[in-house]
Design a protein that fits this description.
alpha/beta, five-stranded mixed beta sheet, 23 helices, 9 strands
Amino acid sequence: MQTTFTDDQLKDPGIQRANDILRACVHCGFCTATCPTYQVLGDELDSPRGRIYQIKDMLENERVPDAKTVMHIDRCLSCLACMTTCPSGVHYMHLVDHAREYIENTYKRPFTDRALRWILAQILPYPMRFRWALIGAKIGRPFRFLMPDARLKAMLDMAPRSIPPVSRNDDPQSFAPVVTKKMRVALMTGCAQKALNTDINDATIRLLTRLGCEVVVAEGAGCCGALTHHMGKAKESHATAAKNIAAWCAEMDGAGLDGIVINTSGCGTTVKDYGHMFRNDPLAEDASRVSGLAMDVSEVLMKLDLPEGDAKHTVVAYHAACSLQHGQQIKTFPKELLKKAGFTVVEPADSHLCCGSAGTYNLMQPEISGQLKARKVRTLEAKNPDIIAAGNIGCMMQIGSATDVPIVHTVELLDWATGGPQPRALTEPGKKVPEIPILR
């Protein structure tokens, strides 16, 4: 693609990066075949190729974006399926993130949009605030019909049936390995996940220590910054990311780390991109060190000696989170691990398509998100699974709200198969529990 940025424009590192990405695009349109919003809406402007043209026009002309352009860019899930499909290596993620930051700095949204985005940015990255918000949502749910905005209704619907108590395992501390020490790793405990489902971190700690890892929860680490980063709020996202960089570098320079383990794949995609985010910042070197050590929990488990399990006669439908399969290009590890543990693993049709969760997307674009959720649940249930497994809390909440098949994190199943407790989701009332017990 030809671009016409001026020399002065190209002095801006963000514009220079956008220019490189735009020039890689050859207009082939392969991306439209795997773009969820194009599949649902059928509008070229809601495809990656269409959004690329809009972003190019906006940036080259330094124009204040109009409401139509903002709408089409807002509708992007950032699922990154287009990056997996693209034969030219167009790094769409960096381009759309830059466009969102540009929109945040130049476009004045309607008051309700600004208010909702501010609320999400002030609540979701903070576990205790989020807990209080979930309690408020549960109280307010009977009055859902009074809400004038579908986005407010979606926020009320987000609250789970029960809010788990705080897990003290998420406090800064170190967990000794149960067997001979093989690795020392830091566990990113996250933010929203700590409020929605404390079992995931607990299972991760049990599993890793059982397999020979010393697991450290670093003092000062918290939200990865993804939620605000994808809203274009660079100042907020960089501030939270910088705290993580400081916390993990302190561990690296102290007792040392062999990895930074992340069990929420959306966070993993962002942490692995810290090197890019901070490339023009004094923290550039430390950010690059952190990105280099960041690993999805499945990557770590592939390095460890997960024991072979007996056949469980239990069918697990594996949902591949977009941030894992497209953002991090990790496609086989979770399935291999589940199979090694003895589960029968199946995949739904169109497994490359997003479930519609996508961070805050299900809250800000509830209609499109709902269509994608219904589509994903249909394809999963068509496999008649006993359990659905996923590696991202957002996907688990999204899919779990529309099916009676229990959904659990991959780590919870692996923990259970190697001696841990039965995942709580398998004992919830109203869920279709496997008739054959996993552990005999």
